[in-house]
Amino acid sequence: MSRKKEYIRINPADSVAVALQPLAKGTDIILNDVRLTLLEDIPQGHKFALHTIGEGEAVIKYGNPIGNAKVNISKGSWVHVHNMKTGLGDLVDYSYRQERKPDEFMGFRRADGSVGVRNEIWVIPTVGCVNSVAEKIAELSRQYCQGTVDAIVAFPHPYGCSQMGEDQENSRKILADLINHPNAGGVLVLGLGCENSGIDILKQYVGDYDGERIKFLNAQDCDNELEEGVHAVRELLAYAGTFKREPISCSELIIGMKCGGSDGLSGITANPTVGGFSDLLISRGGTTILTEVPEMFGAETLLMNRCANEQLFEQTVHLINDFKNYFTSHNQTIYENPSPGNKKGGISTLEDKSLGCVQKSGTAPVKGVLAYGERVKNKGLNHILFFLPQGVEHHLRLRYRQLRYHRMIGCITKKIIGLILTVENW
Length: 426
Known about the structure:
By secondary structure, the chain is α/β, with parallel strands linked by helices. The chain has helices spanning 131-141, 165-179, 199-206, 225-240, 270-283, 300-304, 310-329, 340-344, 350-357, 392-409, 412-425; strands at 7-8, 16-19, 28-31, 34-37, 47-49, 58-61, 64-69, 78-79, 84-85, 104-109, 115-116, 120-125, 152-154, 184-191, 214-218, 246-249, 254-257, 287-290, 366-370, 380-384.
């Protein structure tokens, strides 16, 4: 049976500790690096000195002064009205000192001002026809990876040609967003040369770009695309290697929130923890994005009522209804959810699943509603229209997960524990 705690030092900066029960004279006290023997009896709730406090010196509790010593107070002595007094006066000269919370993370500042949390080289094919070439270029180039560059990653996908209309437009948007993503210190865009969404077309979606960070290569223009591809990646490695991690304000951090394999415990464990993190980041000026619109059905009014203004409310209504129309236009049942695995884990209805899902959004007001492929404009909590997993972004996400999975396993436990401790402390 564990022993009851007998005393506590509230703040590491405190010069006194508090007795949680009556303590007798002669009791040995051990508090981290402090060791002492009580010189007198200490009543419950009263204070004793952790080190000698000189006459006139501040007595520190809660990390702040609670008064001043009237006489020299010896280590292990009872500290109360007989040997300390208030430090307050009738009038005080106040000075403004803004309290700063720890609000920085170590990230990579890009030349265009954007911020990444990783520094990788990405090989992005414009069309599925060159997937194997992109993967081979990445494989051959990894022997040259060094310094601050974390990895060289290819993103194969089956799109980029034989598409039309909105389907083609969405693929181009996502590929351009990926090319511009600040987690990539350098990008090789690999085309075939005859596809619908070729390099010249994609450049229009990418916009202005840094020629040192982004290289373009058409396989049909090369005698040896592997050799030229590896050469381009080596140039990108030299450029990306100039970036170093530096302290960056959390107000520039953008986090996407998604869950998977939900069961009856998700809504009371992982999802609220992520929601707590979202609120914590937003309180520091950062941004989070809530996806998975179909898993808002049945809980959407909770999010609608948190919209910062009526315009955002209307946009959220359209977000929900547009997705429902997407289902019905393909002759699908809107509420044919949860999955068999969800039900096996204790989720009974879509409302049950959705109410657990939206716990990831925390309690912050909704500040933005984003269309498919649209980039964040407003800080705070955003919703995004995220189509069913049949588009290019799904394949890219899956591929990236596979490539990063082995790197994640070693550190995931300590990251989860750290997140939980952060939320608890907050």
